[in-house]
Design a protein that fits this description.
Length: 82
């Protein structure tokens, strides 16, 4: 299975991003647009991983520590068409 570590968004952020994606899609010549249920920010792509390795991956993630950060998506999520 393909694994990655990601930040998931709350519903309000997904809704705002979906509105911006809809606007982008209307003005695009072509392209693929993800469904709102797939919106996330990938922090690390682990690639193909055997199922037997999942406990070690989970353990590594539980032992991982980082500093708090603020992330702003404001300019990406503003719908300027109104």
């Amino acid at each position: 299975m393909r694994l990655f570590i990601a930040i998931n968004f709350d519903e309000a952020t997904k809704e705002a991003a979906a509105a911006s994606a809809k606007l982008l899609q209307q003005h695009s010549l072509r392209g693929n647009f993800s469904s709102r249920d797939n919106y996330h920010i990938t922090l690390a792509f682990l690639g193909e991983t055997e199922r037997r390795r999942l406990p070690k991956v989970r353990e590594a993630m539980e032992n991982c520590q980082g500093r708090e950060m603020k992330l702003s998506l404001q300019c990406l999520l503003q719908n300027k068409s109104a």
